[in-house]
Amino acid sequence: MRSILLFCLIIIFASSLTLAAEEGFTDFIIALSKPVTKDKLEKAKADIKKAGGKINHEITLGLEGFAVSLPADQITAFDQKDYIDFVEEDKSEKEPGLLVTHVENNAKTANLSVNSITQDDPTAETSNNNAG
C-alpha cells in the first residue's frame, strides 16, 4: 500500500512539472465546495472553457477540483461562483516544494504522514503486536 501511494505521489509530481502554462495564461488550482455533485463538476468545466481556459488535470485525491490554465485576466470570473471553495495560483512547476508541502498537508489530514508512506510505520508494528 505504501509503495502504491509513493508511486502516485511521484506521478503527480512529475506530471506537474510538465504542465507549464502557455504564454498569456496562468496555472491555477480550482477546488470545488463540498458536497461535490455531477452538476457542480459539469458547471465548473463549462465555466472554465467559457473563460478560455484549459483543464490540465482533474483532481480527485484529497479535494475535488481542477488544475487549469486560464488567461490571467479571467481568474476574477471565478471569485463569486457558489460551487468554488478556493482558487489559488499553481506554483508547483516554479517551486516544486509547494506540491510536496500540499501533499504532506493532505496526508496529515488523512491521519497519515509522509514518513509512514516511505518508511515502516511504528504504529502499524505496535498494532500487529497487540493483535497477537
Walk me through the topology:
Elements (H helix, E strand, L loop, with lengths): L1 H17 L6 E8 L5 H13 L3 E6 L5 E7 L12 E6 L6 H14 L4 H5 L3 H10 L1
Antiparallel strand pairs: 1-3, 1-4, 2-3
GO molecular function: endopeptidase inhibitor activity
Protein name: Inhibitor I9 domain-containing protein
Organism: Mucor plumbeus
Brief account:
With 132 residues, the protein is α+β, with helices and mostly antiparallel strands. The chain is 45% helix and 20% strand.
What key phrases describe this protein's structure?
single chain; Alpha-Beta Plaits; 132 residues; 5 helices; alpha+beta; disordered C terminus; four-stranded antiparallel beta sheet; globular
